[in-house]
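*Target chain*
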Amino acid sequence: MTYGQQNNGQEQTISVELTLNEALALTGVRFRENHQFEIEGMHKIKKSLENRLITEPNRKEVQ
């Protein structure tokens, strides 16, 4: 069973605040001088997902 199926097909959302440069980097814009924008943006998204999955009250194990 996947995570989406456990929630009766309801789409869930998360909110992540990114800087403009982080958002641009995640859409594919390349910053030759600073690859850190993409790294920081991905880190924020992963952290938000972890927090959502860990703090969800009726969470079942994700397979």
